[in-house]
Amino acid sequence: MVRMGPDVPLLNEYKQEFFWKRFPQTVLGGPRFKLGYCAPPYVYVNQAVLFLTPWLFGGVGTLLCQLQLLQELYAAVLSGMLMFAAAVGVQGLAQYAARKSGSVVERLGAPNIMVDEEEVEFTHCVSPETVRFIAPGKRFGLNVVLHTVLAGVLCGFGTWYVFLGRLTALYSSTGASLVVFVLSWVTLCIAEYSLIINTAAETATFQAQDTYEITPLTRPLYIFIFIAVDLANRFSYAVPELQIASQTLHVVFVFLPLLWALGLLPPLDALLLWGMEQTLVFGLGGSPMSSNIRLLLMFAVSFGIAVCNYFIPSPLAVVLFSTSAGFVLSLDLSQVCTLCRRQRIPFRGHRLHGAGSSTFPLTSFGWTLGCRELLLYFSLLLVALAEAGLLHHFFASTQSQDLITGPQGPVSYLLITLFSLCWGLREIQGAYIVGGMFLNPLYPKGLSNVQSFKQKNTGLHVAAAIRRVLLYLVSPFAMIAFLCMDKSLQSLHSVPISVGLTRAFRGVWQSSEDALLQMVVVILVQLAAGNQSLPVWDTLGTGVQLLVVGLLMDRLSQFLAKLKFTLTVLVTSWTEKKQRRQSAGTLLALNASLWPLVLAVVMLSALLSAPLLPLFTLPIFLVGFPRPQRSWPGQVGTACPCPDSVFYQQMSGSLASALRTAFASGSLGSVAPGSHFLGRFQDRMVWIMILERGYGYCTVNVKGLELQETSCHTVEARRVDEVFEAAFERPERLGFTQGFNLHWGNALTPCAALAVRVYSDARNVLSGIIDSHDNLRKLQEDFMKVLIWLLLRYCVQRHKGLLWSSELGSCFGGMKSQSAQTTCNQPSEAVVVESNMSSLRFRQDSSSLTSFGDWSDEDDLFGPQPARRTVALVTAEAQPGHSVLQIGASLPGSVEMDSLFENMALSALQPLQPLGLGIGLPAVDKGRNPEVLRESPHPNFSCPQSEVFNLPPGWRTAPLLPSRLLLLRPLFPEEWFRFSLGRFGLAAQGETSEDMTKALKEDEVLKELHVKVALSCLISVGAETAFTSPSYIYRLYCGDVPWTEGLDWLSSSKELYQLTLQAFRFSFKLLFDQASLGPMESPEELFSTLEEYERDWYIGLVTEKGWHDSVLQEKPFLFSLGHDLTMGTYTGRVLSLQEQLVQVGRLNGEGVRGQWANLSWELLYATNDDEERYSIQAHPFMLRNLTVQAADPPLGYPIYSSAPLHFPCL
Question: Where is the Pecanex C-terminal domain positioned along the sequence (predicted)?
Answer without folding.
Answer: 1033-1202
